[in-house]
Amino acid sequence: MRRTAWLWGAPVACILACNGGGGDDTEATDGTGSAGTMSSAPSTGNTPGTTTDDPPTTGGPTTPTTPTGTDGTSESSDTTPPVTTTDGTTGDPPDPNELGGPFRRGINIGVRNPKFNDPDGAWLAGQVGCNSIRVSLPERHLVTWGYEIEVADIAAYADMGLDHHIAFLTSPIPEHSTAPNGTPDWELPHWIPKNLYEPAVVNGAINPDNYWAEYVYKTVSTYKDHVDMWEIWNEPDWVADWNYTETWDTDPPTKEQLVRFGGSIFDYVRMLRVSKEAALLADPDAKIALGGIGYPNFLDALLRYTDNPDGGAATADFPETGAAYFDILNYHYYPLWTPGNSDAGADGFFASRDAFAAKMAAYGVPERPYNVTEVGAPKAALNGQPGGVEYARNFYIKVFARAQAEKFVGADWFILSDGDPGEPFGEMGLYQDIKDLGAKEDAKPSVTGVAARTLNSLLADSRADPPATAALGAPTDVRAYAFRLPDDRQAIVAWAYALGTDESAQAHFDLPTDRSFALHAWDSSQTGTSTPVAPEGGLLGLDLTASPVILVEQ
């Protein structure tokens, strides 16, 4: 596979997150986290991104004078919807087990070490318990090297136990792009394709005059055996100034505002429509995912406008709003702008979900399964933002355990390896910096990677068990979630809920059970130890801290 250098800009990262495919061409953003849900705080854009060939960014979104949202970049322009549970908005979304099996423990691989190929990165991901990858399959890469260029690599991932991927689609070739002549290659992911309003399908066949439709059709046809979901573009709602988003509850997001997409909201609805028609022609089981959005009011616009370029009005030719053209509500989240500890950060992850769910409910649109293709937390507190060794490892376990328990399809951690120190996105790796290593076997998991390996190995192939979770009856100062292992044993993830600003919470929990367990600390995958615990009188007494423990039935 072709490789490009790993780029880190200052003050914001331009990160190469080519994710197990399309190694020379992925989409870029500048490292600012996705939309948040705290009230009274504005948005600043989406998340660190994924473009090969991109130069380092020299700055990020305009920094607002008031605190930013819960997940690091944004807040919706209107008053944030009340935080409600999934069940409290529109009812349970479809069972994610129907979308490819067990919970996706995914990863953005990146290209930190140019000597390592994509299967090397996948091998490293598997060593910390990942079972899926966010794959990049841009048109420019596939046209340059042939549509089957990633087939052997993706088959190799499956042999390593990583499968059921999500792939994001972007970056038309220059001949198919609306980019002005002379636009450098690294900017092509910021311009929509030409001929997007040509019919996608004509007489039951893909229309080659619709360049995007033909690209989607060929890509889905080639990779459908290993890709379950198709992420359309990367962060289409990224903005350079959060003030633009203040109007989106009433006015359509414009081409001039959506600078990482290069089209209007009507064009994005059109892209979803074309993608769905083309993908379903190639694979009747294909699922279309939103492109890692950040702002709930961008979703609001998506749900109220059609793909009609004349104001998004419904007509015979443009009969449906964007709600008709996506199957997975996929967003991005970073807790960097959420003051507090790892529980505050994790709460922000789900508050973002709830804000999106509230928009769906407001339009009477059935709730969709959720996936998050970028989420991460730094092992160092930098630039006045939350972080730290305990913070990052606790955040990983809390987010991934809760996401599985609350029926997310999956989540993709950002990122596999640490980068250059001094910026939060350089401290999010599941491995210590692999840049100068000669062999993948020399890589050392970071503390977050150790926690990931512990959780992911103990819960491998497990299923969420909502009735068992409810039966735990966890008090308000405890979080506890139950899972069912493939052999029908129970597993429970539990911790003391931290209300303060640090990781020092403590709580006692009398867990009602007649089962005996092995209690695993966050680092048991490294220590190889666990503690046997057994109930007395139908109760298992647990003294918990902010560091989650995983109990596995014996």
Automatic annotation (TrEMBL):
Instruction: Fetch the Gene3D superfamilies from UniProt.
Output: Glycosidases (3.20.20.80)
Q: Which residues cross the membrane?
A: none
Q: Which residues form a coiled coil?
A: none
Which InterPro entries would you find in this protein's record? GH, Glycosyl_Hydrolase_39
* Region of interest: Disordered: 27-112
Q: Where is the composition biased (Low complexity)?
A: 29-92
Please state what the protein is called.
Glycosyl hydrolase family 39
This protein's species is: Nannocystis punicea
